[in-house]
Specification:
The chain is an alpha/beta fold. The chain has two domains: 171 residues, P-loop containing nucleotide triphosphate hydrolases (Rossmann fold); 82 residues, 3-Layer(aba) Sandwich (Rossmann fold). Helix content is 39%, strand content 22%. A six-stranded mixed β-sheet has the order 6-7-8-3-9-10, with helices on both faces. A four-stranded antiparallel β-sheet has the order 2-1-4-5, covered by helices on one side. The protein is globular, with a radius of gyration of 19 Å. It binds adenosine-5'-diphosphate and magnesium ion (MG). Magnesium ion binds next to helix 3.
């Protein structure tokens, strides 16, 4: 992973160049706060999944959420995503509270996500799966789309073009007609990322995009996440177990343990945080 990071530093001029954005690792090129969790608490019956969690995400950064299994990471994403409404606290997005949100409204606001367990249509092609990410952007009725008449046909072609660009970007051209269920697992995760990208989100939530991957697949996925961040300026919230990956690609890290926040800072600060080390080594539990 260090190799990956070194390569990126060397071509950092190109990545940061025309947009005038500073490179990663030099006091951050991220902007103002785009998303904030404010004192969020969420319980399922007696289980406190999240206890008084606050953190912010700045525009254009890669913000990691880490922690042992059951720490509340996916629950946190589900609160941001409007799937769960917290009993206490709130989510602010671009300075506005995300009140009474649902997944559809959150998506319309420009937030897309991928899932810890793949939620793709296994029998459908790569192209059609990624196309489902465009559905929010489609104006024609479903019926008009089905019979492909008039404006609907034109619209479909425009959406297809976007999807084809995403397929090229993710380097899965050879699979565009392949049913997703027949692809290697690592590539299926890439299709899931493509489906989220098809929504053209300003904020992308990734729930363990590298779980179950081998080292090479992880390196590929890390590169695509960094490229999305660099080329599209997308802000990314990333849940990840692999500490090496987190240290390499994230700007700042939130650490959860048993629903509590036990750390928040730059990767190097987190690595030296005693509470974090203890949580990972299982001390005190
Ligand atoms: N839908 C749910 N119903 C009941 N308990 C849940 C639900 N989702 C999560 N939990 C519980 O909340 C805690 C946090 O889970 P989760 O957010 O999935 O953790 P992580 O993603 O960090 O592994 C766990 O104890 C889990 O069992
Ligand atoms: Mg999880």
């Amino acid at each position: 992973m260090e190799v990956l990071q070194e390569e990126r530093r060397q071509d950092g001029g190109a990545a940061g160049g025309p947009s005038g954005v500073e490179g990663r690792g030099d006091g951050r090129r991220s902007g103002g706060v785009i998303l904030a969790a404010e004192n969020v608490s969420l319980a399922f019956g007696g289980v406190k999944a999240l206890s008084d969690i606050s953190f912010d995400v700045r525009e254009h950064e890669i913000r990691a959420i880490i922690g042992p299994n059951g720490a509340g990471k996916s629950s946190m994403l589900n609160v941001i995503n409007g799937v769960y409404t917290p009993q206490k606290g709130r989510i602010m997005f671009r300075g506005q509270p995300f009140a009474r949100m649902n997944s559809h409204k959150v998506a319309q606001a420009g937030v897309a996500r991928t899932f810890q367990n793949l939620a793709l249509f296994k029998g459908m092609s790569v192209l059609d799966n990624i196309m489902t990410g465009r559905s929010l952007k489609m104006r024609s009725s479903i019926l008009a789309q089905m019979v492909r008449i008039g404006p609907a046909l034109k619209e479909e072609l425009a959406h297809r073009e976007v999807v084809e660009r995403i397929i090229d970007f993710l380097e899965i051209q050879n699979y565009r007609k392949t049913p997703v269920g027949r692809m290697p697992y690592g590539l299926q995760k890439r299709v899931d990322l493509g489906r989220a990208l098809a929504m053209e989100p300003s904020l992308l939530l990734l729930d363990e995009p590298m779980a179950g991957m081998n080292v090479e697949e992880k390196q590929d996925m890390s590169r695509f996440i960094l490229d999305v961040n660099d080329e599209f300026g997308t802000t990314i919230v990333l849940i990840e177990h692999d500490m090496g990956v987190v240290m390499d690609i994230s700007d700042r890290v939130v650490v959860l343990d048993y629903g509590r926040k036990i750390g928040d800072g730059r990767p190097d600060e987190i690595r030296d945080n005693e509470d974090v080390i203890n949580a990972y080594l299982g001390v005190n539990h």
